[in-house]
Amino acid sequence: YADKGQPHWSDVLKKRLATPTKVNEKSEEEKKAEVTELFSKFYTEWRGGSSNDPSYKTIPRFYFKLPAEDEVLLQKLREESRAVFLQRKSRELLDNEELQNLWFLLDKHQVPPVNGEEAMINYEAYLQVGEKAGPKCKKFFTAKVYAKLLHNDPYGRISIMQFFNYVMRKVWLHQTRIGLSLYDVAGQGYLRESDLENYILELIPTLPQLDGLEKSFYSFYVCTAVRKFFFSSTLFEQIKIQDILACSFLDDLLELRDEELSKESQESNWFSAPSALRVYGQYLNLDKDHNGMLSKEELSRYGTATLTSVFLDRVFQECLTYDGEMDYKTYLDFVLALENRKEPAALQYIFKLLDMENRGYLNVFSLNYFFRAIQEQMKLHGQEPVSFQDVKDEIFDMVKPRDPYKITLQDLVNSCQGDTVASILIDLNGFWTYENREVLVANDNDAGNTADMDDT
């Protein structure tokens, strides 16, 4: 402005404010409003822009304030608009009939020769199918998708079955995303614990493998299933829908739609009826006084009853308890940690208990504190205690931490030996298994050789 022979905006503002006015002519609010208006005007002009700039009208609004709790009408309007949006997205997905037509088109355009038992299709035929399949399929028939599925075929073709499975998987993911979003009350892409409970409760009747569950057990089943999701979540009170879709847990849960699921698959699936009944049955067996809660003494009989007293003390110090006793939900976290010690979430749970002073690392003192309890148990069982120095050196050799005197959680995860370290420090049976690993491997090999001879 000074270069153009005009006063600087700050000088104009100061002059305006310095102009004397009659007492009580304007209120403080009016003065503040005038100052703000002048500042906005001069600042906009100084930046070379204008509130009347036509480009402002073409920029879409990207932030919408959420309605307050007392704005009932706005909340209802938002819920309805979300429901309409999700319904529209659902209609954009391929239904069963359209998927069947797509399969027929792909099969009709297969390109010889057959690769083993797999029907193949080249890029030209692939584009022809895309033109005939309809607008809903357009996003699947791109060069990028084709390149993803292209492997080592000498003719540059892709497997029809692999492509169709890719389409099915995408459709399923979108269907599931929409289904989960219907339970997202806040509409922020998260599910609270109660939201996920409602989702699973309404899902139970659609899973044939859960037909035998009594309705009185539904609440315990839902709790068992939900804890699996939240145990691995980085958040405590909510879980991202995106994270639910990314993990394998939802696949395991929906695997229960298979009416012919094998017994082995059911036993290894946390969400199956046998698995849920097993976990709840263990809880009831541990609850000797039948008060619905577990004391430290009752929990000490968990598994092989060889968890150290020191570790159990830490469990009851750090985990949520009620008058010094553990409820079923807290017990589920405990079981998930001990049954999945290789998983990062389980290691995080155990590490927090081992890190008594909350320093973010384990040092020699921490290791010695927990291993002393293992030594005491060995004495009680008439075994010669192992030297801590030897065990300490073995642990540091296994983990190879970045700091030679401190072991962090990330060190345990990176080493892929975190489960072994945890077992050595908290469970006599786990330590005994590690200490006798060579003997156990030799016995397994001998058993295998004997079985081969028997077969011969």
Structural class: mainly alpha
CATH homologous superfamily heading of the domain at 316-323 and 339-456: EF-hand
Summarize the amount of helix as a percent range.
55-70%
Question: Please, what is the average pLDDT?
Answer: 88
End-to-end separation: 100 Å
- Spell out the helices and strands N to C: HHHHHEHHEHEHHEHHHHHHHHHHHHHH
The CATH architecture classification of the domain at 316-323 and 339-456 is: Orthogonal Bundle
Query: Judging from the principal axes of the Cα atoms, what is the shape?
Result: extended
Radius of gyration: 32 Å
Number of helices: 24
Strand content: under 5%
How many beta-strand runs? Answer: 4
CATH fold assignment of the domain at 316-323 and 339-456: Recoverin, domain 1
Low-pLDDT regions: none
Keywords: Calcium, Cytoplasm, Metal-binding, Nucleus, Repeat
Protein name: Serine/threonine-protein phosphatase 2A regulatory subunit B'' subunit gamma
GO biological process, one term: regulation of dephosphorylation
GO cellular component, one term: spindle
Explain what you see:
It is found in: Cytoplasm; Nucleus. It comes from Salarias fasciatus (Jewelled blenny). The chain is an all-alpha fold and 456 residues long. Among the domains are: 9-53, no CATH class; 78-179, Recoverin, domain 1; 316-323 and 339-456, EF-hand (Recoverin, domain 1), CATH 1.10.238. The protein is built from 24 helices and 4 strands. The strands form 2 sheets. The protein has a two-stranded antiparallel sheet with strand order 1-2. α1 (9-18) runs antiparallel to α2, α5 runs antiparallel to α6 (123-133) and α9 (193-203) packs across α10. It is extended. The N and C termini lie far apart (100 Å). The mean pLDDT is 88.
